Amino acid sequence: MKKIIYLAAAFLCMACSDDHESDQQHGGASGSVTEVTPVTSDLSVGLSTDKAFYKPGEKVVFTADNALPAGTKVRYRLSGETVGEESVNGTGWGGAGGAPRVPTARKARGPGGGGRPPATDFKGYMAEVYRQENGTDVIVGTIAVDVSSDPARFPRYGFVADFSQEKTAAKTQEEMAYLNRHHINWVQFQDWHNKHHWPLGGTRTQLDEVYMDIANREVYTSSVKNYIEAQHRFGMKSMFYNLCFGALKDAAADEVKEEWYLFKDASHTTKDSHDLPGGWKSNIYLVDPSNKEWQEYLAERNDDVYANFAFDGYQIDQLGRRSTLYDYSGTPVNLREGYASFIEAMKQVHPDKSLVMNVVSRYGARQIGESGKVDFFYNEVWADEADFTNLKAILYENGVYGNYRLNTVFAAYMNYNKADNRGEFNTPGILLTDAVMFALGGSHLELGGDHMLCKEYFPNENLTMSEELKTAMVHYYDFLTSYQNLLRDGGTENSITMNCTNGEMKLNVWPPQQGSVTTYAKQVGDKQVIHLLNFSQANSLSWRDVDGTMPEPALITKAALQMNLPAKVNKLWVASPDVHGGALQELAFTQENGVVSFTLPSLKYWTMIVAE
After folding, report:
1. What is the mean pLDDT of the chain?
2. Closest Cα to residue 262, out of 273, 277, 274, 275?
């Protein structure tokens, strides 16, 4: 029997504890904390919510897939602070339209002075469903809640790439419920269109019921609409994919002019092209994205799309660095500046629609970010950016180019060589890469409604997910969402000296080293955050795990750690997507002469330590 549980998002938006109250509740300098509640878990209850994110004040509907055990409670945490707690009885949770009792928001200090209420927008919460046994909190289920008025602040991107007849309303609802459980708030429609220069199947006034995509697969107009409708029921944003400069071989018949193309020579003899396999509709011939007539032409074609489909925006693609190209008059073309011009033109015509543009191997990142018109960064990373250190460099550059306003999604294709044949994703490779991406503040385009991504051709489904990986993905996306304010909401990177005194692990400060646990630290408000990333058994320092050979790391338990923190520590806690569904564990610690000593419960792939 499913229990429907209601909660108002407005009640989730509580302030963190006042500094003085924290000081009184926890030991500080030259002191210790010994009275903490032990935590264990059985994770026997699956939870879901009715939306991928919520605007402040919206009602949150929780669903439990099993009857909740007697004595169960739910506790809501915001970046580690408990902001609400309620017992759960057998008849439901708060009643239809009701809300659990939540403590009155405490005053929080802010830039405007003491006493100002904190902002309630753009917060991530963890709902911990638990029972108590012999003084121990037993976590039976967890789920994250994102309260954000705009999903662009914390983008979590998924995709769909099959629009065959089988994608009925019921089937697309089921698939989007799967993405919703991972809090996916944006969905990219790949290979949905008829032609790059004429994306609509049919005309604005006469849609085709069925048309063929670039690979000559059938696309049902009804299936595209079914996906959009299902996504909107979960609050997701639907983004249609298209190049900024693509035309097929029959484009002249659709009034695409010869003068708009890009050429490999100054005498406009040879068009630049992206060649595709035989049996597909056509190669793709490249058009100058800065050409005003082309911009007007494609904007009209997008008008046709928006008139018939309730898409929320345009996922713009490019092809990365090209050789020197010329316009029809023989003038060399600056593609990167052309991207900025194209983005500006698309936004001007449809100011109410979202725009996201692919940054292929960083090409055009500055122009795209500085346009001020994209909702977030979307970086497609390849073999020339194969190391974990490249991910951090990209995030740093994107911060600069986006004026620290835009978060980043990585389009990063895992187990790439292994995906040439049918098989199963290598779970350790996926989890280690996601751990690093999420800890650094990025997110990962990888989850589709019906398969996980392994190639740049999104319909490729050669690799399948094991049940272990499916379960882990839920916990990882709960973690990314619930702790988003510590992971993706600013902060200042710093270096914390840490050592292990009982030999359970070898430690190094970022960048990663094989055979070691790598620390990555930053200060976020009054919280010092230290991520432990386990490279102890890693066979490479590449995020790609191209052949699917990354080994599973050995579980590390009860490591005695010390870290230098001169500021007074009032509370110390850890959380991991690998343990207890991401639920918080408060730790006993001592602090003497600026050295904090404690025992780490466990580390598999990734554990986050937070000192307040």
Report:
1. 91
2. 273
Contact 575, 583 (CB under 8 A): yes
What are 131's strand-pairing partners?
A: 138
Q: Buried b / exposed e across 306-325, counting CB within 10 Å, b at 16+?
A: bebbebbbbbbbbbeeeeeb
Q: Are 242 and 251 in contact (CB under 8 A)?
A: no
Nearest alpha carbon to residue 10 among 112, 87, 89, 117? 117
Q: Output the pLDDT for position 238.
A: 99
User: Is the bond preceding 511 in cis, omega lying within 30 degrees of 0?
Assistant: yes
Give yes or no for a contact between 501 and 562, defined as CB atoms under 8 angstroms apart.
Answer: yes
> Do 530 and 609 touch, CB atoms closer than 8 A?
yes
Q: Which of 525, 445, 446, 526 is nearest to 489 (CA)?
A: 525
Contact of 285 with 261, CB cutoff 8 Å? yes
Alpha carbon 408 to its chain's center: 8
89 band by pLDDT with thresholds 50, 70 and 90: low
- Rounded Cα distance between 438 and 390, Å, is 14
pLDDT tens figures, 360-404: 999 999 999 999 999 999 999 999 999 999 999 999 999 999 999
